[in-house]
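Repro:
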Amino acid sequence: MPQQLDLFSVIGKSPDPPSSALGRHLDSAGLDDASLAAAIPQAGITVAAALASEAGRRRLAAAVPALRELCRRLTGIGADRPVPEQIAALEALAAIGGAEARGAVAWMIAKAVVIGPTLTVALDVAARLGAIVPPQLVAGLLRHDDPMMRANACRCARPGPAAIPLLLELLTDLTRDVRTAAACALGRMGRTEARPVLLEQLAASPSSEVIDAVAAIADERCIVLLARTARVLPGLAEAALDALDAIGHPRAEELAAKLRSTA
């Protein structure tokens, strides 16, 4: 009697095509650029992540189509768990950057190639790259049960009637990271409703993202806090000084000049 196929043994896995057998033993660092890009789409699950990571380390633009295809092969997997191969490909695309990488990440999100926890990573990469995610999809994710998903959706939001009301609601979200992400998105849009949350973060836990967002809606309190940030946090000094320059207010110009003169 022929042996029955165990369907449950392959659920949640991507099939290794015959050509991937050698892939289990590939030395990703030893491949030249062309061979690395060629190996990625059909790589077995044991080495796909390593190949993708190597492409990202090299910032190999020629590998973008291969990374997209690797993720496409795994479409629909990972509703309840991260998919390491897709995450490695997404991080590689973030490292490579450029219009083609932005388009690949936006396509993966729009076509539900990445789902579940991996979608959270994809939104983070999309925000870092400035990829355009469909507004209605972003609006739906702003209502997601997972706070991390809501926060990353905020970072992908763009001005428009689908997103702004939801972002305003999220200014009072129970999760601080979500409130901050919503405020940053609104601040970049020039919405002064975000100022209280941004002021709170600028005083307690400044970051380059908060500094960038507050510059568009800064008042005198923001200016003073930006100057303090530049003075006491060397790692954020350049960002804070750039923000003071961008505000175009006499007080901001005065403080920026004073800080530079004492640097």
